Amino acid sequence: MVNEAMFAYGSERSAIREIFAYATARKAEIGEDRVFDFSLGNPSVPAPPAVRDAIVRALEEVPSTQLHGYTPAPGLPEVRSALADSLNRRFATTYSGDDLFLTAGAAASMAMTIRALTSPGDEVMVITPYFPEYRVWIEAAGATCVEVPSKEMSFRLSVGNVQQAITERTAAIIVNSPNNPTGRVYRRETLVRLANVLREANAHREQPIYVISDEPYREISYGQEVSWIPSIYPHTVVCYSYSKALSLAGERIGWVLVPNTLPDAQRVRSSVAGAARALGFVCAPALFQRVVAACADEPADIEAYRQNRDLLCGALGDVGYTFAEPEGAFYLWVRALEPDAQAFCDRARELELLPVPSDSFGVSGWVRVGYCVDTNTIRASLPAWCELARMYRS
Ligand code: PLP
Hints:
Shape: globular
Oligomer: single chain
Enzyme class: transferase
Pfam families: Aminotran_1_2 (PF00155)
Keywords: Aminotransferase, Transferase
Bound molecules: pyridoxal-5'-phosphate
Largest sheet: 7 strands, mixed
CATH architecture of the largest domain: 3-Layer(aba) Sandwich
Strand content: 5-15%
Cofactor: pyridoxal 5'-phosphate
Strand order of the largest sheet: 2-8-7-6-5-3-4
CATH class of the largest domain: Alpha Beta
Protein name: Aminotransferase
């Protein structure tokens, strides 16, 4: 016997993984440079030299048994303290290492935080379109995933829709800005309005509604301010990761922040620690704890992503595609040229173009184009995008 829910998660079809597997096989068949794989969110920019330096320094300076040994469950105190200091410099806050719990990336941070803040039967709101794993983490906690539509066509956060979806079972809302898959960065005014709506709802409840801010793309913004949500709404827990900012996706390192300004912070912090225990997510990778402490103030190199975004948006705009102008992250959210996004992707595949249909993200009729690829891939794909548009016109 196995657990049926886990069996379903493990065996259900993942569109993204399937496209990636197809792309790998197809590249072997017809050549790397003839297949345009836009499926994954794997950073295409190398990790900064400071990462390598920090790894080498740690290997040279820290005795092996310490370097590779267990750390305390929430991470090394000196690392948590260095990361808190870095946040304080950036956001004029007064956090300490106690506010941080180091994790194996945002996936662990989110799974732990959702588990910590919900009880079975609670509801967690997600804004559509949304990162597909949210549903898995919410349901695995015994809670219900409530889909709240973003604004039509613009994909901005609709505070009105959030307000309408609040029930007495609402425990939390997941905010992801910069957003995967739309590239939207939510404006400060919108987040202030969201905070006001949540405060108003809280006035009639015993438990506040939490904001779970999923921020793996915080550093990838093309000019828009990425607001620090705990300064706008106190019941906010932040889930962060170095996967995208420092191109360390495979190393699995990030954190959960329960800010000292959060009312009842100690209780929430203990619940996060308890969820880490329950899920087996204690002691984040020890070498990379030290590396991110050394690189805490390292800026993300986003110029290649900006160049890719400009190239792709310019060319797709010229041939008449409709898309959400990406303000952050490294995804372009493009309207399919027919209502069925899967059928559109099938036609795109004939031209070796491999975007992801929007159905995976909880909406129909759009596709996600991950432009975290070599700029030459973008350039080489442009004739195929034109040809695809032409096929639909004729
Ligand atoms: N949240 C979002 C919105 C993501 O896009 C991803 C990864 O792509 C994650 C969480 C998980 O990130 P990590 O690699 O840090 O686990």
